[in-house]
Amino acid sequence: MDNITHSLAGALLGQMGLKRLTARAMPTLIIAANLPDIDALTLILGGNEHLAHRRGITHGPIAMVVLPIILTGLVLLYDKWRPAKETVKPGWILACAFIGCLSHPALDWLNVYGIRFLEPFSDEWYAGDTLFIIDIWVWLALLGGIHFSRGIEKRGGRRFGFPAALSFILISAYIVGNGWLTGQAETQSREIVGKQYRIIPERVVAAPVPFEFWRREIYWRGGYLYGSGEYGFPDGALLTGRPEPISFDHPALAAARDRDDVEAYLFWSRMPVVVEKDGRVLLKDQRFMDEGVSNAFTVDLGPAE
């Protein structure tokens, strides 16, 4: 998910009551909720090579132990430099750092980009395909929970954690509901592809779209072909367009397999395809074919023959 969502999630956890545990708990939760994204530093590699490093080792099990410990040390050092008005309890700071860090991969798993939960022990990608990467409805629920909780707190109310907890419950129900929609979309799409093209898809992705949480864009592949469709509740799934060849035997790809950017892209991509456009051969991912984002997820393999 985006870093606004991660930050608000950390703040919501604090308002649910965790910030009562110790001074500095709230900033610790918010920083920890964003900390695994230190892998964004790999953007300095340029091109597409950073894709192979994102949502990997800094989101894996070793990082979920090491990062909270490092953050706890930094918070305690900062508190020695600028002591808080109340006592900072190292054990609770460490607990908040762990909880905040763990919230990050849990949220990142929900979108189509995916995450390598087990890096460095396994480089397999996992994706929940449940929420769009920037979900306005989750933003509103997070903001609402934090706002009403803070309002009660400022008025001296002791039960300020209730609105935050209610927001957490509503968001959890929203995630479960969206997971059900994704499951319906993928199941129906598999059946339609099988009936219409006599193909058993090796992969079907039902990608959430902005704002309209009840809709999905469908991407499928199988039998050396790939195609797309759409799903809307309650109407159901519908295939659109004609299947296209995946073209993984394209000579331009074979000639470029020793390139670092190509290998990094293929390591990252869940649904790679080779297409020819405007006289060029391009390596793309079905999830990111839209003109608005495709340039950031495209490798130019060279001129078409």
What distinguishing features does this structure have?
hydrolase activity; Metal-dependent hydrolase; 305 residues; YdjM-like; transmembrane; single chain; 3 domains; 3-stranded antiparallel β-sheet; membrane; alpha+beta
Radius of gyration: 22 Å
Structural class: alpha+beta
Q: What coarse outline follows from CA principal-axis ratios?
A: globular
The helix content is: 40-55%
Number of domains: 3
**Amino- and carboxy-terminal Cα gap:** 40 Å
Q: How many individual β-strands?
A: 7
Protein name: Metal-dependent hydrolase
Pfam families: YdjM (PF04307)
Keywords: Hydrolase, Membrane, Transmembrane, Transmembrane helix
GO molecular function: hydrolase activity
